[in-house]
Design brief:
The complex is a heterodimer of chains A (about 200) and B (about 325). Chain A has about 200 residues and is of the alpha/beta class. Chain A has helices at about 30-50, 65-75, 135-145, 190, and strands at about 25-30, 55-60, 85-90, 120-130, 150-160, 170-175, 180-185, 195-200. Chain A has one domain: Rossmann fold (3-Layer(aba) Sandwich). Chain A contains four helices and eight strands, in the order βαβαββαβββαβ. Residues about 1-20 of chain A have low confidence and may be disordered. Chain B has twelve helices and nine strands. In chain B, the strands form two sheets. Chain B has a five-stranded parallel sheet, with helices on both faces. A four-stranded parallel sheet of chain B has the order 2-1-3-4, sandwiched between helices. Classes of the chains: A alpha/beta (about 200), B alpha/beta (about 325). At the A-B interface, helix 3 of A face helix 1 of B.
């Protein structure tokens, strides 16, 4: 899910690469994002000694295209891997702890790869890691879906300010932010362009 | 959306949102663990002033699958039989902290009164009021039609789609049927063409402005309109006096002219589905051949009812409630 103060968190906030009123600084461009994903893909393979038993679960909206990109990179390195059989989507809307504090959220799809997740290594993929509450919800959702052998976490951006004892295993970029700032990840699949932007906040 | 009282209140986008949400809810019901924590700590009261099996059980199942606490209240054997008014019952439920009230009542408009009177703060869901509306039934019917008839017979992704171009025949006791009224409004909103088929005695006065066609001849409708879905309504004998109650000469004659049997089934288009809101009077409005045929989706309608009611409860309850907004909203 996207992050930032008072975001309705649905695609409406998306295609605005210029960052209209406030000043938006581009932190990562398309090349940096591509390099970060390639590195994460290699780190995943290194940590798990190959791609056997791996499942990448993307958290909608923007975790899902990231999971697909990671799977494509894994398949480049390990030709035996079928990227389609590797990726799933894990919607966490119904497990959130803040449903009462927002307008109704649209529920996304949860799709597991054909082999399921029992006994496999699940890598959760999200765009921005912030408070950790999304991941808490994802862990609850996983619990209802099966029993993975291990769960790991990959995030394109870690902006700090954790509110729960959760840490990522694979990070694209550590981004020190203040809580008033807003981090936006734009992806070609959802927003037409690749960028990580930071805007707002007192500076 | 604060309440769900009538399908006439729903815009096309709201109706499609409910159907899309129901599709995701249905997906969760195929898992080994069907319970979701979404409405933990919320209380849903089923307030039933009329007999019901499937609607009450369906709402109860839906609420429980979303982890809400469910309190069942039926008028029989409660203070209502001692003469308690709807207002006092509602105030009692409010005092117990009901977040949503699911109400079925023999008086048309009772849910509307409950929702607008200030007797209860919670969301009100109409589970059937008199001969007025039964919105969740119409939503589950629309959901069932969309699953079977939109997107190459259910193979393509139907998210966001409505029922544009579908032809639906609703046959039988329209006069007493809140299901028919809800369906006419909702199916029209979703772009389907509805034809009501009934003997003149079982059509209400003032049907003229309804957004649908009306016919007295079932065979002609099957031949001329080639409906994609045919919905048989229950002949509501409890709302009539003995036999046909003057609404039709005899049960046999009703069956011959308006019942769905194997012969009429065979003349329906190949892909057409047979629906019935239940409970069925087998042998009266629908024959066993039709009810048990593979084209009948009557049992599936019941299963879809749970998903649709989960969606309605989710959309009405899992949102901002007064006094709970976070100070500094981190996520």
């Amino acid at each position: 899910m996207s992050s930032g103060p008072a975001a309705p968190a649905q695609p409406s906030e998306a295609p605005d690469p210029a960052g209209s009123a406030t000043t938006a600084t581009e932190v990562l461009g398309p090349h940096e994002i591509a390099r970060a994903l390639t590195r994460i893909a290699h780190e995943i393979l290194e940590r798990n000694k190959g791609a056997a038993d791996l499942v990448l679960l993307g958290i909608p909206t923007r975790g899902l295209p990231l999971a697909h990109r990671l799977a494509a990179r894994l398949a480049e390195v390990e030709p035996t891997v079928d990227p389609a059989a590797l990726v799933g989507s894990l919607d966490i809307t119904m497990y959130r702890d803040d449903l009462r504090h927002h307008p109704t959220r649209t529920i996304g799809a949860t799709v597991l790869p054909p082999g399921g997740i029992d006994g496999r290594v699940v890598v959760l993929v999200d765009d921005v890691l912030f408070s950790g509450r999304t991941i808490r919800a994802a862990l609850d959702a996983l619990n209802d879906l099966g029993r993975p052998r291990a769960v790991q976490l990959a995030a394109l951006v870690d902006r700090g300010h954790r509110e729960l004892p959760i840490r990522p295993d694979f990070v694209g970029k550590n981004l020190p932010t203040s809580t008033t700032e807003r981090v936006r990840v734009l992806l070609t699949e959802t927003d037409g362009t690749d960028a990580v932007l930071i805007d707002g906040g007192a500076r | 959306m604060k309440h769900l009282l009538s399908t006439a209140d729903l815009s096309r986008d709201e109706a499609v949102l409910i159907l899309d949400t129901a599709a995701q809810m249905a997906a969760t019901q195929e898992r080994a663990i069907k319970k979701l924590p979404t409405l933990r700590g919320r209380t849903v009261v089923n307030l039933f002033y009329e007999d019901s099996t499937r609607t009450r059980i369906s709402f109860e199942t839906a609420a429980k699958r979303l982890s809400a606490d469910v309190i069942n209240f039926s008028a029989k054997g409660s203070s209502v039989s001692k003469g308690e008014s709807l207002k006092d019952t509602a105030l009692t439920l409010q005092a117990m902290g009901a977040d949503a009230v699911v109400i079925r009542h023999p008086a048309s408009g009772a849910p509307h009164t409950l929702a607008t009177s200030g007797w209860t703060q919670g969301a009100v869901l109409n589970a059937g009021d008199g001969t007025h509306q039964h919105p969740t039934q119409a939503l589950l019917d629309a959901y069932t039609m969309r699953r079977h008839l939109v997107g190459e017979g259910g193979t393509a992704d139907v998210t966001g789609r409505d029922l544009t171009g579908l032809r639906v025949a609703i046959v039988g006791d329209v006069l007493h049927s809140r299901v028919a009224r809800s369906n006419v409004d909702l199916l029209h909103t979703l772009g389907a063409e509805v034809t009501l088929v009934a003997p003149p005695t079982l059509l209400p006065v003032g049907i003229g402005p309804w957004p649908c066609r009306v016919s007295y001849d079932l065979d002609a409708v099957i031949t001329d309109e080639r409906p994609d879905a045919i919905m048989m309504l229950r002949v509501q004998r409890e709302r009539m006096s003995s036999a046909g109650g003057g609404f039709f000469p005899s049960a046999v004659e009703y069956t011959r002219r308006y019942g769905l049997d194997g012969r009429r089934m065979a003349r329906l288009p190949e892909h057409a589905i047979v629906m019935h809101p239940g409970p069925m009077n087998r042998g009266l409005e629908i024959s066993a051949t039709a009810a048990d045929s593979p084209r009948a989706v009557i049992v599936e309608q019941v299963a879809n009812g749970v998903a649709v009611r989960m969606a309605a409860l989710y959309l009405l309850l899992a949102q901002e409630t007064p006094g709970t907004t976070l100070q500094e909203d981190a996520r």
